[in-house]
Specification:
heterodimer; A: about 200 residues; mainly alpha; Four Helix Bundle (Hemerythrin (Met), subunit A); elongated; B: about 80 residues
Amino acid sequence: MLLVSLAVACANQPEVFAAGVRTLTIGMGLANTVALLTGSYCAVRAVTAIKAGATAACGRWLLAGAGTGAAYVVIKMTEYVHLFMAGYTLRSSTFYFFYFFMTFFHLMHVVLGMIVLIVVASRCRRGHYLGDTARGVGAVESGASYWYMMKPPLRIRQLGQAAVLRRALLEQAVQLFAFDGFLLQKQISRHPQPLPMLLH
Amino acid sequence: MAKRALITTWLTLLVLTLLMWFLRGYRGADWLVFVVLVLVAIKGQLVIDRFMELRHAPVLWRVALSGWLFIVLGVVGIVRATSGS
């Protein structure tokens, strides 16, 4: 729904969106994407480690994942501060409404995900899952699932909720388009034409 | 999944992302959007297959996720191709 409404808004006001995109920094979009991709990688490695019974290694990967989340938060906050100092807020235009709304929603998800990862990591370190690999795998997979929804099918089977899949797809969208959509928007800012794209 | 395969996937994703960084000099070119869409499609499929480990999952899950990815990208491409010039 967010994607569709954004597409409509962007198609209706191409010049507003083009102007908005010019106020963002492309390097930060790139850095954020690298942080997100690396965070996903750490989560997958943590799951692999716990499956092999390596709880200590798993804890380290989870902490590393939380670290990439921290990097993401710092970069995003820097972007926000720059925009606020330049006088842009949620109410400045449709573009900023979507930009702040969607990225803040995602940012909250990252912060909560970091807390989940740190909690599971500390449990790994304290030997919570020693001798009970199944429980450890379950906990780490759930944590990793929330952290960028690595395994939505698993979560859906557990929870039996279609909402989880929708949420997973939205997260995937934000992650995949974090930089790519941004580049496209940059492109149309030179070449003003409507383009539906998930902004970052 | 094997450690090496995961590292390869991660590095591939980073390289594809950096590739877009180098493509930024070409923004304004009509073909760029489609190159970016193809790169995003490759990245998306990599994440779905390797990170989400859906490579050997039931066909329905694979179709659902890949289908979603390609429909979104397809709609973007079609709108981009039909709007303007």
